[in-house]
TrEMBL record:
Keywords: DNA-binding, Transcription, Transcription regulation. This is LacI family transcriptional regulator. The lineage of its organism: Bacteria, Bacillati, Actinomycetota, Actinomycetes, Pseudonocardiales. CDD domains: HTH_LacI, PBP1_LacI_sugar_binding-like. SUPFAM superfamilies: lambda repressor-like DNA-binding domains, Periplasmic binding protein-like I. It comes from Kutzneria buriramensis. The keyword Lipid metabolism does not apply. It comes from the Bacteria. Pfam families: LacI, Peripla_BP_3. Residues 12-66 form the HTH lacI-type domain. Gene3D superfamilies: 3.40.50.2300, lambda repressor-like DNA-binding domains. One of its GO terms (molecular function) is DNA-binding transcription factor activity. PROSITE patterns: HTH_LACI_1, HTH_LACI_2. InterPro entries: HTH_LacI, LacI/GalR-like_sensor, Lambda_DNA-bd_dom_sf, Peripla_BP_I.
Amino acid sequence: MLSESAQPKDRPTMRDVAALAGVGIKTVSRVVNGVSTVAPELVERVRSAADKLGYRPNLTAANLRRSGGRTNTIGLLLEDIGNPFSSAVFRAVEDYARDRSVLVLAASLDENPQRERELTRKLIDRRVDGLIIMPAAQDYRYVLSEQQAGMSFVFVDRLPTPLLADAIVSDNRGGARTAVEHLLRTRRRRVAYFGDDMAIPTAAERFAGFTDALAAAGLVPDDRMVRHGLRTAEQARRAANDLLAGDPPEAIFTSQNLVTVGVVEALHERDLQHDVAIVGFDDIPFAAVLQPGITVMAQDPAAVGRKAVSRLFDRMNGDQSPPAVHTVLTRLIVRGSGELRLPE
């Protein structure tokens, strides 16, 4: 409990500044808003008083009084800002918005639909001008009333159901198929799969790409070599060690960056990194300096972020065109692990 002397004090107001500076409230308001006709001597008195009191203007209230009620803030809700993909999306959105004097308020969802709804509501209550969301929920009809009230939305990485706003996604299924086809060119046929929870749309799409590539080669997935529901590098490491302890697969496709990290750790622990080929979906730190380097199907999270924030600004500025899906292509980065040849 705070002591009486430590109780939080009310923030100083414009009236407090006016009293200390010996001027009227209108003069303080004109100084705060940068009106150029205020006499320099009065400007100095107001600024000096504001500094002594620690006064900060209420920018939200000021913006709401302006035409259109803009607050020059947007919300960004991502799976996990600590994840390299999410953090790259965040940085691209932040850079774009900063160039336009707009502040980004970001938070992590942790694949929790209830958390998503709560954070969405809190950001809307704070009068953000628009929202970019990496979906965690299954049903997005809850945003309809907000859209009708003028709120702009853009979704990233996954499609909302139903499609009520623009969505910016990577080519998950096509990229996964290309990655597995690349592994199959090494003549390896026993290919394992390590991936995220199949309830996550991107995980389901990447597993579909995995099975597409096998089917085109006349193969079917071996259920003994398929591992779903892996959310962390440690979970993936344990699952990989369990599989590698028996009859190791000839190749592995990992469908998420943290999963790739865990599987690569297990391969090195068992000294199998030169025997079992691997291609991961999405790039990972230090992939190029390992031996062998880790071949990946890389997304372009910066492009996803730029496209998302660009579409959001278009919507905030009045674009009324029907919502659309915008796909950002993936690319194969060859580094060695996916090109290991079977012994003759």
